Amino acid sequence: MKLVSFHAEGRDRIGFVVDAERVCDVTDAAREFGVEALSNFPADMMLLIDADANIQSALRTLHAAIETDLEKVRLFERTEVALYPPVRRPSKICCLALNNSANTDRIISGPKHPAMFTKPSSALIGDQGTLEIRRAYGRVHPEPELAVVIGRQAKNVAAEDALDYIFGYTIHNDFTSPTMRGEDTFHYRAIHPKAGDPGAVTYVDTWVSYPGRYKCSDTFSALGPWLVTRDEISDPHDLAVECYHQGKLVTEDSTANLFYKVAQVIEFASSYMTLFPGDVISMGTALKRSNGGMAVQNVDLATLGGPVSVNIHGLGTLTTVVERLP
Predict the structure, then answer these.
(1) pTM given for the model
(2) Correct CATH for 93-177+215-325 of 1.10.260.40, 3.90.850.10, 3.40.190.10, 3.40.190.290
(3) Spatial distance between the Cα atoms of 316 and 72, rounded to a whole number of angstroms
(4) String of DSSP letters for 224-237
(5) What is the spatial distance between Cα 248 and Cα 46, in angstroms, rounded to a whole number?
(6) Domain extents for the chain?
(7) What DSSP character marks residue 278?
């Protein structure tokens, strides 16, 4: 199933994607087909993801019924609706840093485990949403990524069980400002206890940057266009990824090049933080091949404007427009 959060005819809704151009409302369809469990369900994808087995079974039943009798339901054209991020207020968006095996030669030193940072839900926009770039942000570029949406609470999950905790997959464009990263980087002398000398300290040259602005500013996380349930993606590590700027191919890759795989990442992340239903894990930037020497870092949206699109096989196309502000 492909599920969508959207707004149409004056109210927020959750729905099924019928095809690339049409969606239908879950609760309206449930009333038409007599699926009582869903006929008054709240228009909240987070609640749907976290719902019990009876609701999940009713959802599959309703989806199958719609596919056999499309004429019975009200279909909305894409031009009639505004798409929200599939999950609008996850407790966290966990992002993988430098997780592409095709680019390991760029890493001078780094951890021997997945490296993560988090983004807030306030950064989210949906398909056809607007990335707002202020002059103070400096350079801003796209980062096309596969995103995993957690389906049930996960803590200390073993890798062999990890895929069972996934509800589905979507696309994430992790917009980034290297200018703000540079401005927010400290080069300082970190204080450490001195070995063998209790009470004494030693100083170590250190560089650190916190992603509060350069990754987390409002509109810096495009998510969508919809949420594809886990059963539709047989192998999340065999998906072609493409990123386009103003219709021109910028970079293409495959999720096969992710260094740490989905199951490993869930195992690692859940050993440190509880993952809740609806939480998003963004698996790292697709970077392997570029068009004419281009890389996503060359696409300065602050200068060039948009739009920018990410396509992942089986997951659709996520498009973002750009607005440059004072």
Answers:
(1) 0.96
(2) 3.90.850.10
(3) 26
(4) EEEEEEGGG-S-TT
(5) 35
(6) 2-83, 93-177+215-325
(7) T
Contact 178, 297 (CB under 8 A): yes
Check residue 89 and give its pLDDT. Answer: 97
- Dihedral of CA 99/104/106/109: which sign? positive
Q: Which of 125, 127, 66, 116 is nearest to 93 (CA)?
A: 116
Residue 41 main-chain phi, psi, to 5 deg: -70, 140
Tokens linked to 256: 């096969």
What confidence score (pLDDT) does residue 161 get?
98
The letter for the amino acid at 87 is V
Which amino acid would we find at residue 197? D
Encode pLDDT of 175-192 as tens digits. 999 999 999 999 999 999
User: 201-234 pLDDT, tens per residue?
Assistant: 999 999 999 889 999 999 999 999 999 999 999 9
What are 113's two structure tokens? 């485990």
